[in-house]
UniProtKB/TrEMBL annotation:
GO terms for cellular component: plasma membrane. One of its GO terms (biological process) is homophilic cell adhesion via plasma membrane adhesion molecules. The gene is AVEN_136735_1. It comes from Nephila pilipes. Residues 1-22 form the signal peptide. The lineage of its organism: Eukaryota, Metazoa, Ecdysozoa, Arthropoda, Chelicerata. This is Ig-like domain-containing protein. Gene3D superfamilies: Immunoglobulins. Keywords: Disulfide bond, Immunoglobulin domain, Signal. Residues 25-115 form the Ig-like domain. InterPro entries: Cell_Adh-Cytoskel_Orgn, Ig-like_dom, Ig-like_dom_sf, Ig-like_fold, Ig_sub, Ig_sub2.
C-alpha cells in the first residue's frame, strides 16, 4: 500500500469514528411569561440547538403526555422545532410543562411552570 493511500485511509477511519457517535440534543430554554391572563393565547417553542435529527418531541404537563384538545395544540414546525400553543388560557392549564427531545444519541428536557394570573389577587395566594 502506498503511504498516501495509507494516510488517506487513516483520516477516513478517524472521520467515521468521530461522526458515527450521535450527539444528544440540547434544547433552548422556553418561558411562558409572568403576566398571563385568562382567555389569552400562549405559545412556546421547543427549539433544538445542538444534535442531529431525526428528533422525537414529546410534551408533558406535570409528568403526563399532553394531549391535544380544542384549547391546546402541538405543531412540529420543522425537524428542529416543536410548538405548544394554548389558544384560550384557563386555570386548568396551570402546571409544569416539559419538552423532551430524543435522538439516536439520547434525550434532553426543558421545563417551565405556567402560572395564570389571578384577576383579583388574593394577598394570601402564593
Ligand atoms: C418540572 O418538571 C421537571 C421534569 O419533571 C422537573 O425537573 C422540575 O423540577 C419541575 N419544576 C418544578 C418547578 O416543579
Amino acid at each position: 500500500m502506498s503511504p498516501v493511500l495509507f494516510v488517506n485511509g487513516l483520516f477516513l477511519l478517524c472521520w467515521i469514528i468521530n461522526y458515527s457517535e450521535a450527539i444528544k440534543p440540547e434544547i433552548h430554554a422556553f418561558h411562558f411569561g409572568r403576566m398571563l391572563k385568562s382567555g389569552q393565547r400562549v405559545s412556546v417553542m421547543c427549539a433544538v440547538t445542538v444534535g442531529q435529527p431525526p428528533f422525537t418531541f414529546t410534551w408533558f404537563k406535570d409528568g403526563t403526555v399532553v394531549s391535544e384538545s380544542e384549547t391546546v395544540t402541538i405543531r412540529n414546525i420543522d425537524e428542529f422545532n416543536s410548538n405548544l400553543a394554548i389558544i384560550k388560557l384557563g386555570p386548568e392549564h396551570n402546571g409544569n410543562y416539559t419538552c423532551r427531545v430524543t435522538n439516536n444519541g439520547g434525550s434532553s428536557e426543558q421545563s417551565d411552570v405556567l402560572s395564570m394570573m389571578v384577576v383579583f389577587p388574593d394577598p394570601t395566594w402564593r
